[in-house]
Amino acid sequence: MRVTFRVNGRRQEADDVWEGESLLYVLRERLGLPGSKNACEQGECGSCTVRLDGVPVCACLVAAGQVEGRDVVTVEGLADYAKERAAGGGCATHPGSCGTAGTSLDAARRWEARPTDSATGEGAQLAPIQQAFIDAGAVQCGFCTPGLLVAADEMLERNPNPSDADIREALSGNLCRCTGYEKILDAVRLAAARQSEGA
Amino acid sequence: MGTTGTPTNLTQGSRTSGGIGESTLRPDGTLKVTGDFAYSSDMWHEDMLWGHILRSPVAHAEIVSIDTSEALAQPGVYAVMTYDDLPTDVRNYGLEIQDTPVLANGRVRHHGEPVAIVAADHPETARRAAAKIRVEYRELPVVTDEASATAPDAPVLHPGRADHHAPHVPHPNIVHRQPILRGDVAEARRRADVIVEGEYVFGMQDQAFLGPESGLAVPAEDGGVDLYIATQWLHADLRQIAPVLGLPEDKVRMTLAGVGGAFGGREDLSMQIHACLLALRTGKPVKIVYNRFESFFGHVHRHPARLYYEHGATRDGKLTHLKARIVLDGGAYASSSPAVVGNAASLGAGPYVVDNVDIEAVALYTNNPPCGAMRGFGAVQACFAYEAQMDKLAAKLGMDPVEFRQLNAMEQGSLMPTGQVVDSPAPVAELLRRVKAMPMPPERQWVTTEGADVRQLPGGLSNTTHGEGVVRGVGYAVGIKNVGFSEGFDDYSTARVRMEVVGGEPVATVHTAMAEVGQGGVTVHAQIARTELGVTQVTIQPADTQVGSAGSTSASRQTYVTGGAVKNACELVREKVLEIGRRKFGSSHPAWATAELLLEGGKVVTDGGEALADLADVLEGEAVEVEEVWRHRPTEPFDLRTGQGFGHVQYSFAAHRAVVEVDTELGLVKVIELACAQDVGKALNPLSVVGQIQGGTTQGLGMAVMEEIVVDPKTAKVRNPSFTDYLIPTILDTPTIPVDVLELADEHAPYGLRGVGEAPTLSSTPAVLAAIRAATGLALDRTPVRPEHLTGTA
Amino acid sequence: MDFLRPARWEEALAAKAEHLTAVPIAGGTDVMVEINFDHRRPEYLLDLNRIGELGEWEVGEDTVRLGASVPYTRIMEHLRAELPGLALASHTVASPQIRNRGGVGGNLGTASPAGDAHPALLAAGAEVEVESVRGSRRIPIDEFYTGVKRNALAPDELIRAIHIKKADGPQQYSKVGTRNAMVIAVCAFGLALHPETRTIRTGIGSAAPTPIRAQAAEEFLNAALDEGGFWDNGKIITPSVAKQFADLCAAACNPIDDVRGTASYRRHAVGVMARRTLTWTWESYRGTEPTAFRKGSAA
């Protein structure tokens, strides 16, 4: 079957999709967006977390056909998404989407990811949460990182001043095997602090 | 033609300019947070096929027949291969003993053993085709423990063994046996005022790295193959892969793709040979990606163990003797079982002075899943047992458990049970003191003005208690781990360092085959190059087999050994740079001939700080490159009868204090805090060091309360191969982990550093268990401890 | 495999009638796991995501009509007052990502004894609104579960909504798992006090082939509360009464040993949860116990 949807603000079309394929497979193997990770494919690890119409979901558990006509944001589009959000007033991109689950469809449609072809990522513009993960040492092997970034970014959108318990609850669907989570907590605290300073 | 996602150089510029000792940031950090870092499962090639492996549904069987005809006839299927299709006579592989069939040869010895491989145009096509391969199995009785494996009529799993352990083992289903004998245990036993015994059970732990086994094999025009792979040791893979393919090693070009964690689980081969075989057979690139279910069958696990311990002590708290027997289940194939045995035996007494020792460690061949390397490697199982013993002894003597440990703690100059003198700092008592001195976390943190915050309670979001039945407990543990490869293994690494001027600026390029698996070796290599060569800009080239071996990213060894190799190569480069400088500018200043010269801040400077020349000028028109092997001091094998010998090059120590709260009625545990103190010799990158300690600590926590691969003892089949039923800690299970880093230099090691990665995994588990025992008053002689063990409902 | 994408409910019913083997998929949190792990290859996937009404709810006088696909996150956020037991249960479901996709209809469709919603539905009292091209009917929740992963749906029927009684008293929900988040139930327990009818109802998950009520325990406690005049005098429930209730709840279980826990532990834990949830709800009824602090959803 053919599936047409928007990813990181761009219209994408995938052909010859097997009906049993997941959104994750389509992103990774058909659209050249392998940033969302395939760690468990059973919804237990959060490594494939993307935003589907603004809502964080496990891409491995969304059937490809279910995203027809819908909007997806992946880690590859996170920096631009955050930039757009900041330009929209530091909260969410659309009235009514702040404090609920994510960003509205219209809001998501207003922006596009810029192409990036830097071999090393040097000079790449990062979302605050991405920079905080690097600065706090929250990245080791990095396989859990994309999903954590999408989940943490969305939490900070809803809850700009989270307690540690809030952070732990919001990220309880994202497994990390390397860090023991301490540096991840540091990173989210750091991003929250920078966000409130900047606000 | 192109391969998408192939690794690229990692260049770090002026933003992070630090040398060793600074918490510089990862050069691959930006790629990893943007999703652009190419892991082995992200590789893509036009026209590529998908490989799939058909695995045995039973643990032990004779294969009566295999019929692949129907599978081959499926549209979209390009190849189906079985044992009979292997191209050469080399059809087994293995890290030390080549006992593992590439594809089953008439017999399967464990659940999930590879039987056939398929290449097709879509993963689903490959799966459906594999389901059409007809395999007739005749099931054989399984051996699953020491009694069944060594029974007189036990089926011998590997008849006709010719490996070098075969002559000294008491039964062919024992992979290796290592005794450690020292002093006179019988005499010491008579002197003991108290004796404690215990039989301990350690479950099978999985590395559970998040990036499943995967890779891409691309056939080359010269008849060779290019393999992009996540592994811990490229050259060990190469040594095992090439003969099976019938290719010379230089025609199997391996490049390290992004590695999604390892923890020992990538030391053995998984899909490497299978992907290459299919690529060479079909002439097309072949990608294989395990899913999580398959990953549980795709790599070795940590050896489960039974440990029988007897310790004695005098009334005033001095250890008299230790008698121990450690039985490790190696499963169906040897993997690194012999080395795990050596570790368990030689480190079986822990970081304590005990003069009279009788330890025996063995690893079994059984029909259980193969076991091999995992973080802590044999020392973990022993630590669980000896630390439980220390608490029992302290209790029996009426002593404080920390003081009792300190009283018997080894120190620099102490003798190991192997007779080896510990010849660098061994601050065991100090680490315990530090961890005990840390402030205690506040009590009853779940109490809020609005009621109980269940997230702070055992059971968490599941809302099982609002404080009822909750009891706090505190426990301590300390452990000892060897660093680097031991027992006479020729442990070396290779580094190629190049220095040249690019764009008017001096740049260093470091090329090694070190597998960056997340630990931060690439960060440290750049720091070393900056420190030694005085440059800001360092490029780390992708790890591949175009440079000499770096050894494995395991045994806490890479910063020591490959770090040492990079340092050594940098020093050689520096000498050459100075030679060029003397040639070009020597006449301009007498210090070129007389002073001790350094490279700093892009200049050649004297030890007095006077700048003699810009490196850019010295290297103008000239590049310097050195590739050199570097070794740590040699070790020697343990005597097969007595276990005596200078077996380990370095030791690493960590201590933990665990604070837990247990819902004693429901048997649910919340770890409130896991404080750690560790001696790291020298923290080359303090941020990474703390990250390693916290990560290792958390894996130990998982082993204490939730992680276990459950194998049915009747069928030897794995019962929980998924992340639904093999649980690893979430962020809500993981406590704050305060870390106290001690830096007492080891004069034998580069910069005085000590390997960091494994020690925290040892003591974390027994500390949590001790805390649970303190909270519940239960004996708890197995790990992981489950709710039924805490509620008398097992 | 075919992928059917009805835009309206009637089209979904027609598709299901035409393809009886079609597997409905909404949140995908059960179905996709089975597909990814090659445990299932349905002939047809029937996507319900486009049918907007399935994600909506209406709060009526006595009941809440909950669309089959309302995500657990929404239940936690918006229906805590009306459906406190189900809101608590929703909060224990897997992870935020799963709670954003999964809904009660999926739990009912799968009918796993470990489904988190079941004990809350049993305790609150509910009816499942199912429909086919042949017509609509409501199945009482007590008659819905017919076996291990089996339910009372006919092959052509789809779950449209769940009608759940609005809480008329305190409700609680507890679940034991061997991890502090993102865990499948080893066993679970739901309890609802119904002061209007002066009854209590229970629900037990993962401790029998199907989700069950502890009916003997309910009858015992209803009688004990009635005889002691507890509903009126608001006295503390006697420990011996609480203990017998707990024991009867444990006795109602018919659990198995499996990789997640022993039968013996499940029975024990259900008893403990029964006693604790009874204390929490009763203290709340008496007006002394602050409602358990449940911080706002982070889902």
Automatic annotation (TrEMBL), chain A:
**Does the keyword tRNA processing belong to this entry?**
no
- Is Iron included in the keywords of this UniProt record? yes
Which InterPro entries does this entry report, sorted A to Z? 2Fe-2S-bd (IPR002888), 2Fe-2S-bd_dom_sf (IPR036884), 2Fe-2S_ferredoxin-like_sf (IPR036010), 2Fe-2S_ferredoxin-type (IPR001041), 2Fe2S_fd_BS (IPR006058), Beta-grasp_dom_sf (IPR012675), Diverse_Oxidoreductases (IPR051452)
Family matches, as CDD domains: fer2
- What keywords are assigned to this protein? 2Fe-2S, Iron, Iron-sulfur, Metal-binding, Oxidoreductase
Q: What is its EC number?
A: 1.17.1.5
**Molecular function (GO) terms listed?**
2 iron, 2 sulfur cluster binding; metal ion binding; nicotinate dehydrogenase activity
Q: What is this protein called?
A: Nicotinate dehydrogenase small FeS subunit
Q: Which gene encodes it?
A: ndhS_2
From TrEMBL, chain B:
Alphabetically, the GO molecular function entries are:
iron ion binding; xanthine dehydrogenase activity
**Which Pfam families does the protein's record reference?**
Ald_Xan_dh_C, MoCoBD_1, MoCoBD_2
In which residue ranges is the amino acid composition biased (Polar residues)? 1-15
InterPro entries listed in its UniProt record? Ald_Oxase/Xan_DH_a/b (IPR000674), Ald_Oxase/Xan_DH_a/b_sf (IPR036856), Ald_Oxase/xanthine_DH-like (IPR016208), AldOxase/xan_DH_MoCoBD1 (IPR008274), AldOxase/xan_DH_MoCoBD2 (IPR046867), AldOxase/xan_DH_Mopterin-bd_sf (IPR037165)
Boundaries of every Aldehyde oxidase/xanthine dehydrogenase a/b hammerhead domain copy: 34-141
SMART domains, sorted: Ald_Xan_dh_C
Q: Where is this region: Disordered?
A: 1-27
- UniProtKB keywords: Oxidoreductase
List the coiled-coil residues.
Answer: none
Enzyme Commission no: 1.17.1.4
Put simply, this protein is called Putative xanthine dehydrogenase subunit D
Please name the source species.
Streptomyces jeddahensis
Automatic annotation (TrEMBL), chain C:
Q: What is its EC number?
A: 1.17.1.5
Q: Does the keyword Lipid metabolism apply?
A: no
High-level lineage: Bacteria, Bacillati, Actinomycetota, Actinomycetes, Kitasatosporales
Give start and end of each FAD-binding PCMH-type domain.
1-169
Tell me the SUPFAM superfamilies matching this sequence: CO dehydrogenase flavoprotein C-terminal domain-like (SSF55447), FAD-binding/transporter-associated domain-like (SSF56176)
Q: Name one Pfam family in it.
A: FAD_binding_5
Give the superkingdom in one word.
Bacteria
Q: Does the keyword Oxidoreductase apply?
A: yes
Could you tell me the keywords of this UniProt record?
Answer: FAD, Flavoprotein, Oxidoreductase
User: What is the name listed in the Swiss-Prot or TrEMBL entry for this protein?
Assistant: Nicotinate dehydrogenase FAD-subunit
What Gene Ontology molecular function terms does this protein carry? FAD binding; nicotinate dehydrogenase activity
